Amino acid sequence: MTDLLLLPGDGIGPEVIAEVRKVARVLTPDLQIAERLFGGSSYDEHGVPLTEEALAAAKAAKAVLMGAVGGPKWANAPRDKRPEAGLLALRAGMEVFANLRPALCFNALADASSLKREVVEGLDFMIVRELTGGIYFGSPRFIEDVPTGGKRAVDTQVYTTAEIERVARVAFELARGRRNKVTSAEKSNVMDSGLLWRQVVTDLHARDYADVELEHILADNAAMQIVKNPKQFDVMVTDNLFGDILSDISAQLTGSLGMLPSAALGEAGKPGLYEPIHGSAPDIAGQGIANPLAAILSFEMALRWSLDQAEAADKLYAAVIKALDSGARTRDLGGALTTAQMGDAVIAAL
Ligand code: NAD
Ligand code: IPM
Ligand code: MN
């Protein structure tokens, strides 16, 4: 049985996943690793970004780790065949509805952020992004010609009570093991789905999680507060689109988008999907300079959450801190190391 299925993907995806392979060879040599094409590279070979066989392999593995997908090469592919559509199909197919995106500022990087050291030092903030619903998946969805000229494009945001409740439950459970506070972000002032979101979270809190502090915030204010004073937050739960945006903002608090890992989880016992939150970075792809730490830290999350290897995860986490403490920096962090040299620095620290 495959323990870990690697989906390197496109652009810098294969470059950062190569470093995960190197780390795994040293840290967990017995791990059964398999690999499939995914995204644009799958489209080029098979005509689709995610084959049925690859999805079946993902569902049969204990954990899936992807690099990144997409790029200008596929910008004009039909929308349902685009690399990003493959990623959405993978998330939906694996039913990984809760996306944990931790924004952690390592001490060694407190000066790498574009924000002041005192704002980000010691930051440990977790975004729980709903991942299989909302405007990413709602129907109807189309672009059509308008008789009077021009076109009309429609996307639909849909959330059900059950979808909101299950992701909010994950946030409350996580908060109990952390600083016991959940902030729920939506736009209940303008959106019906936001109104329902607030109601469902409020009800669930009263019913099952009254011991956890709950705060509601409008998503635009949340974006501002994350930059102004991120340390006020512990766990933030939000919908698919707001979670996408708020987690990129949070990434910059940690020094670089190249630092943020993520774990997408479904029902207990099902495989998790692990991915750096960054994309395929076409502007630096092929140069060997991408930061592999988001991918390596995503592997760390996979070891911890899906592969039952907490000890190896602890070792890897400590090695990343040691490498950063010793001054290892890729270009995005203000240094000069290549992707491979950063991987080597982590392995040396192991
Ligand atoms: P991006 O995350 O690829 O890049 C944004 C910026 O961050 C770029 O300047 C890039 O060089 C930099 N960056 C990202 N990761 C880095 C790393 N590991 N090390 C150093 N610098 C890094 O976002 P984008 O440019 O908006 O999107 C490019 C493509 O990636 C698009 O096709 C998009 O759809 C796709 N994308 C995929 C994923 C994913 O697969 N999970 C996530 C986001 C974007
Ligand atoms: C992410 C990405 C994806 C998203 C895209 C590539 C579909 O931006 O994982 O954050 O929007 O979810
Ligand atoms: Mn994103």
From TrEMBL:
Record key words, sorted: Amino-acid biosynthesis, Branched-chain amino acid biosynthesis, Cytoplasm, Leucine biosynthesis, Magnesium, Manganese, Metal-binding, NAD, Oxidoreductase
Residue ranges annotated for the Isopropylmalate dehydrogenase-like domain, each copy included: 3-346
Enzyme class, broadest EC rank: oxidoreductase
Cofactor(s) annotated in UniProt: Mg(2+); Mn(2+)
Subcellular locations according to the entry: Cytoplasm
Cofactor binding mode and count: Binds 1 Mg(2+) or Mn(2+) ion per subunit.
Residues carrying the site annotation Important for catalysis: Y136, K187
Binding annotation for substrate: R91, R101, R129, D220
One Pfam family of this chain: Iso_dh
Metabolic or biological pathway, per its Swiss-Prot or TrEMBL entry: Amino-acid biosynthesis; L-leucine biosynthesis; L-leucine from 3-methyl-2-oxobutanoate: step 3/4
E.C. numbers: 1.1.1.85
Entry binding sites for NAD(+): 71-84, 279-291
Catalysed reaction, written as an equation: (2R,3S)-3-isopropylmalate + NAD(+) = 4-methyl-2-oxopentanoate + CO2 + NADH
Binding positions for Mg(2+) per the UniProt entry: D220, D244, D248
GO molecular function: 3-isopropylmalate dehydrogenase activity
Signal sequence range: none
Family per similarity comment: Belongs to the isocitrate and isopropylmalate dehydrogenases family. LeuB type 1 subfamily.
Function, as annotated: Catalyzes the oxidation of 3-carboxy-2-hydroxy-4-methylpentanoate (3-isopropylmalate) to 3-carboxy-4-methyl-2-oxopentanoate. The product decarboxylates to 4-methyl-2 oxopentanoate.
Assembly: Homodimer.
Name of the protein: 3-isopropylmalate dehydrogenase
The species this protein was found in: Phenylobacterium conjunctum
Gene name of this polypeptide: leuB
